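Here is the promised in-class demo. Please do not try to memorize the tokens; focus on the logic of going from shape to residues.
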């Protein structure tokens, strides 16, 4: 007999087709953490209750009789971050961040903290005009809150000419307008340095590609 769970608020991280009748949805919830679920695609009304990337929604899931697969029974949209999809840069960086969460969330200890970081990051991608800086801040905060020694280890190994820009980019409020070209170049170099440190010094998985079927990235 199938089991129906209580509704939970969830962040939609990735969507991919799964045959003609279903789509796979990677979500993050505050109580249960990461969940991979299936949603049946309605042939009568394919837009009815359809999730979009980066949504916040109230979802009720139903477990199969075997208990392995979970299906979306109800999907109530709470917040749609459509502005992310209107910008290629935002879409690229937000999808790369969500891919990082999908690959690592099952092994992270505190789903509530991870949910809050992810929600704030998606809000920043939607509202701000510098997704490169949002990505750097989010990656640094994620590592710091997971207990990795970014201050003690990564920071001390960062080239001296990048330390002042890194301090400003990470600590200052996000700019309301798009950052200048030189600042974005430095941000990209700092982020790549931090990603390289992550790959060497942590057990987190660094995905090669963004996990987004909607983007069509290759």
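The designed amino acids, position by position:
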């Amino acid at each position: 007999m199938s089991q129906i769970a209580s509704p939970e608020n969830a962040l939609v991280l990735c969507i991919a087709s799964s045959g003609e009748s279903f789509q796979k949805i990677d979500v993050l919830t505050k109580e249960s953490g990461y969940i991979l679920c299936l949603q049946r695609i309605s042939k009568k009304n394919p837009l009815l209750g359809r999730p979009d990337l980066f949504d916040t929604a109230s979802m009720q899931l139903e477990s199969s009789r075997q208990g392995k697969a979970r299906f979306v029974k109800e999907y109530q949209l709470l917040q749609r971050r459509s502005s992310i999809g209107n910008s290629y840069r935002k879409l690229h960086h937000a999808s790369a961040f969500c891919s990082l969460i999908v690959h690592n969330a099952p092994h992270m200890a505190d789903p509530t903290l991870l949910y809050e970081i992810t929600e704030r990051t998606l809000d920043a991608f939607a509202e701000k005009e510098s997704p490169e800086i949002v990505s750097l801040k989010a990656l640094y905060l994620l590592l710091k809150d997971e207990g990795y020694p970014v201050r003690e280890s990564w920071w001390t190994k960062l080239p001296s000419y990048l330390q002042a820009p890194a301090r400003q980019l990470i600590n200052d409020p996000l700019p309301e307008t798009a950052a200048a070209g030189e600042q974005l170049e430095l941000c990209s170099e700092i982020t790549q340095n931090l990603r390289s440190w992550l790959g060497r010094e942590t057990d987190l998985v660094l995905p090669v590609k963004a996990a987004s079927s909607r983007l069509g990235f290759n």
